[in-house]
Amino acid sequence: NAGVTQTPKFRVLKTGQSMTLLCAQDMNHEYMYWYRQDPGMGLRLIHYSVGEGTTAKGEVPDGYNVSRLKKQNFLLGLESAAPSQTSVYFCASSRGRADTQYFGPGTRLTVL
Amino acid sequence: GQNIDQPTEMTATEGAIVQINCTYQTSGFNGLFWYQQHAGEAPTFLSYNVLDGLEEKGRFSSFLSRSKGYSYLLLKELQMKDSASYLCAVRDYSGGYQKVTFGTGTKLQVIP
């Protein structure tokens, strides 16, 4: 039982490049989330999903897109990376909308 | 909206007791979580309170007072491995749905 996994663990991008972060969970959870964590800002919700094929915006959605084609996977895309998107990105999943969240190990992204 | 306040940093001595406070303001409170996050790692669930009072779980206890908008996490018999950030997260019900919002976290340093 791997829980929540994320790939890649580290990535460096140049401004304007695109990339996709992959999150996978094996707990059959309906809800999945993407957060970014910056010093002094805490965890901020980017987008979340309430089930396969359904996504919704969180607190800071601009510059990101998401997809949930399969229940176990939640993808976060950056179409044109900007230095302001340098951050640590965490994926999480939960059984219900406000149940305990289980987090992946994080992806450290640097945009130059 | 929500407003969650935690001290930014705390220092305590190995073997001692430390109390980490969290205050919040929300109109539709429906529970409070505490998470632990070691540097460079993902947050992990510690405790959940929805009713007033103290919940004890080994060396860790969490207290909630809904009328005061106040919670604390109590760590006893501190160990060096307890050095981490502690995140308070509030669940509330507003606009027809539930959501969880994280505080910025309290960085605890345990010294010998």
3D structure, described in words:
The complex is a heterodimer of chains A (about 110) and B (about 110). Chain A has strands at about 5, 10-15, 20-25, 30-40, 40-50, 55, 65, 75-80, 85-95, 100-105, 105-110. Chain A has about 110 residues and is an all-beta fold. In chain A, strands 2, 4, 5, 6, 9, 10 and 11 form a 7-stranded mixed beta sheet that branches. A 4-stranded antiparallel beta sheet of chain A has the order 1-3-8-7, with no helix packed on it. Chain B is mostly beta strands and about 110 residues long. Helix content of chain B is about 0%, strand content about 65%. Chain B is built from no helices and 11 strands. Chain B has strands at about 5, 10-15, 20-25, 30-35, 45-50, 55, 60-65, 70-75, 85-95, 95-100, 105-110. In chain B, strands 2, 4, 5, 9, 10 and 11 form a 6-stranded mixed beta sheet that branches. Chain B has a 5-stranded antiparallel beta sheet with strand order 1-3-8-7-6, with no helix packed on it. The relative contact order of chain B is 0.34. Classes of the chains: A mainly beta (about 110), B mainly beta (about 110). At the A-B interface, strand 10 of A face strand 4, strand 5 and strand 10 of B.
